[in-house]
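Predicting holo structure, PRP bound.
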Amino acid sequence: MQLQVSTHPLAKHKLTVLRDTSTDHRKFRELVRELALLLCYEATQDLQLERTAVTTPMGEAAGWVAREVIGLVPIMRAGLGLVDGIQELLPTVQVWHIGLYRDEETLRPVEYYNKLPAAPTVQVCLVLDPMLATGGSAIATVNILKRWGARRIKYLGILAAPEGVDALSAAHPDVPIHVAELDERLNDIGFIVPGLGDAGDRMFGT
Ligand code: PRP
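Done. Tokens:
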């Protein structure tokens, strides 16, 4: 299992405010954006580089340039909230949206949007979704990306339930999972406990 739970003090502080029932939609979106930026910093620690040179006002310096093209794959709706913060850090990323919702009865993901081009255009995919609950949505998205031909895939989210981590790790052991916290459990309607409620609803005011 490749689970990375952030130990960064700012991530812990921001997650605590995010969970609070008194945090309004505007503040919630701002915190999700900031957490995405912090988690992206951690999830890109192993990004591959190649040598380059740069001209400074004083002369030539050796430097580095990122070798891999990164694609963000937000799972709609709630994954959209993680895009902005990451784009601040990685302004040239490609963004490929996947639309999935969970059937409220079965908790199984239902696909409703996918406009991936025929062949992969990126070397690293970051699957974005704030909540890893049963893991069904994340597994379905990684299945889609692997069928597409993506080689290196990472999951970046805010909260995970142990059930979701186990399911995603079992289905796709090669996919590292980066989250701000691993919570206690899922409840009987598939919500993470203690969690933060429904991330999509809190983000979009629905
Ligand atoms: C929520 C959440 C994840 C999914 C996680 O989405 O944003 O996408 O459930 O659950 P899973 O791990 O059990 O698949 P939801 O279906 O509520 O849709 P939304 O993002 O449009 O609100």
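The first strand starts at residue 3 and ends at 5.
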